[in-house]
């Protein structure tokens, strides 16, 4: 019997456990390093990152943005990841990262001049998004720039079909995603059989949170954030990027 888990944190943990390259942690798929780099470079430009900045990145993936920030020569750069498994890998690459969830950041009030949270809220359970935005506001200094990117304004694609049987599952994965994905799943299935562990497929394709532009702006204002501008994402035409500030008191 194959069961499914739509828990995205478990999906991040499993990605870290089965990773081929560090970029897998960006969860954009194989061969998308250049897209991740271009997206992070655009974020650096949108927030106008400078050497006197203290950057907090929530959900820092493979650390691409943190590496670009080091090139800018920021005063400090701290990244958060959902699981200790991801933290171990990104820390081994020399970056300053810790485990934390979007709605509970181990950061003192008003300590960041720039807060970035890109391609993360869409996988956070909807009920935790308002508190996550309040956390961004709390850790930001008055006058800080807060970038929140890749917020879908439409629901995600339909759920993957479920199969009772391993062969059907593998054939489907091969047809839809190719050899690497189906071989990866075959390896995990073999491990589950040999170890006697239950077969749990972690579904990483499900969007938990989406909001229209107006809905998201209203959520952000409720959290205390002041909108600066927003625009359609250049790679995903169903997502918006937002730049906010925290009003000076
Ligand atoms: C899709 S990746 C995006 C990585 C990077 N921001 C980028 O744009 O390339 C999602 C990231 O969010 C983190 N994440 C997932 N759920 C989270 C949560 N509830 N709280 C904090 N981080 C989370 C994961 O550890 C992962 O680094």
Task: Kindly describe this structure.
There is one protein chain. By secondary structure, the chain is an alpha/beta fold. The protein is built from 8 helices and 9 strands. The protein starts with a strand and ends with a strand. The protein binds S-adenosylmethionine (SAM). Residues 8-9, 12, 25-27, 36, 58-61, 80-82, 86, 101-102, 118-120, 123-124 line the site of S-adenosylmethionine.
What is the fold's blueprint, element by element?
Elements: E1 2-5, H1 8-17, H2 33-47, E2 54-58, H3 64-72, E3 76-81, H4 84-92, E4 97-99, E5 112-118, H5 129-139, E6 140-152, H6 166-177, H7 179-195, E7 199-202, H8 213-222, E8 226-232, E9 239-245
Parallel strand pairs: 1-7, 2-3, 2-5, 3-4, 5-6
Antiparallel strand pairs: 6-9, 8-9
The chain binds S-adenosylmethionine.
What labels describe this entry?
2 domains; Rossmann fold; 37% helix; 7-stranded mixed beta sheet; single chain; 8 helices; alpha/beta; binds S-adenosylmethionine; 249 residues
Taking the sheet with the most strands, its summary is: 7 strands, mixed
User: What is the name of the CATH superfamily of the largest domain?
Assistant: Vaccinia Virus protein VP39
Per DSSP, the total helix count is: 8
Unique bound compounds? S-adenosylmethionine
Q: What integer is the average pLDDT? A: 92
User: Within the CATH hierarchy, at the fold level, what is the topology of the largest domain?
Assistant: Rossmann fold
Secondary structure tally: strands: 9
